[in-house]
Amino acid sequence: MALEHFLPADDIRTLFSTSMSRMYQQEVPQYGTLMQLVAEVNEQTLAGEPALQQQLQDNGELERLSLERHGAIRVGTAAELNMLRRIFAIMGMYPVSYYDLSEAGVPVHSTAFRPVDEASLRHNPFRIFTSLLRLELIADDALRAQAAEILARRDIFTATARKLVAQAEEQGGLTADQARQFVAEVLETFRWHQHATVDLATYQALQDAHRLIADVVCFRGPHINHLTPRTLDIDTVQQQMPAVGINPKAVIEGPPRRRCPILLRQTSFTALEEAIHFAGDQAGTHTARFGEIEQRGMALTPKGRALYDELLNRSRQAPAQADNETHQRQLAAAFADFPDDEHSLRTQQLGYFRYSLTEAGRQQAGHGGAGGDLNALIEAGLVQATPITYEDFLPVSAAGIFQSNLGGTHHQAYAQNANQAAFEQALGCPVRDEFALYATLQDDSARQVLQALGA
Ligand code: OOG
Ligand code: NI
């Protein structure tokens, strides 16, 4: 079949993210309320900041502004993760980065499936934070064996989804009709199930080992546990959530508010307690699903990231603050040592930048001979540098999001270390290195402007 008959992977991803959003808003009405609040605050922010509005418009970002940026699921076996890799590849989403959450007392390790090239990110940056349960972290031998046995009995994918994945791999893509069917079938994997596959006693035993283990093991599939739209003003949304009947987690995760935003700031509403039918006709509840919002800033280089980690650590030496305002003040004090102007961030090589020609640069291009390095060309007004947006996740923040939904039970860190090799073995390929992706973007843009100017 000719290539042009296939629906582009980017479009399949958009079909998927919009279908998922529709399903989740039906399943979790509070999430719809959050979406509405986010859209309103985004609108107000734009009205108050015409420059921001212009910038988003120029980047073609206005249209998708308040739509989902990411979601998250947790799977139980290597085979499940491996199949997800194949499914996400059909939507142009590839595993980037390895996150070890065991360090924070959560018995999973994770990656983010996301688009990796610039055009695809611009088209639709939707990504799925995907965690694999680490059964080896269940201390009780009998319980561990039981959990493994329960997981071995389930198939979280429909037969048609499996068939279409094989077909897509064989053909090299899916037609529009096949893609629509594929998305509908894959959506089944992410659906909520009110019926648990186990009885209440088994659920409780797994819950006692760790609430997350019960969440992964006791259901027919890995229900999507949250979706996350983009906000332009996370502080305002956090503050306004209670007024629309939503209970936010105590603090916003990530860096403080800054003039030059870095990395990722996130907050969520706490997971809902939902009615569950357990095997043997027993009634109970389960707490898993929530809503989250995110505000993204500049991607940091390894040097910038090391400084971020150091300052975050420093701020965490002080006792944890229960209210967001005090937390943010404490954070801001610690981050006073992080340069907050684009010039310093760039020249100290703390952040990644994309280089492009200015209007004067475009006029100069082709005439050649504009000598000098990038800094000189920027100073001469021929080249401009704009921050590259961070597209990945932060393990400390992710742990904070997990923890806020674990019902207050505090967990010790697991002694087990990160095990990226085991994760990649399960996944069926290595994860991509996020720093390498940003560095390539930056270097490619630099090469292009230098070439255009004949420098
Ligand atoms: C994933 C939590 C991590 C984020 O945005 O950092 C996450 C989960 O609860 O399964 O989604
Ligand atoms: Ni999230």
Automatic annotation (TrEMBL):
<comment type="similarity">
    <text>Belongs to the 2-oxoadipate dioxygenase/decarboxylase family.</text>
</comment>
<protein>
    <recommendedName>
        <fullName>2-oxoadipate dioxygenase/decarboxylase</fullName>
        <ecNumber>1.13.11.93</ecNumber>
    </recommendedName>
</protein>
<dbReference type="InterPro" id="IPR047869">
    <property type="entry name" value="YdcJ_bac-like"/>
</dbReference>
<keyword id="KW-0560">Oxidoreductase</keyword>
<dbReference type="GO" id="GO:0051213">
    <property type="term" value="F:dioxygenase activity"/>
</dbReference>
<keyword id="KW-0408">Iron</keyword>
<dbReference type="Pfam" id="PF07063">
    <property type="entry name" value="HGLS"/>
</dbReference>
<dbReference type="InterPro" id="IPR009770">
    <property type="entry name" value="HGLS"/>
</dbReference>
<keyword id="KW-0223">Dioxygenase</keyword>
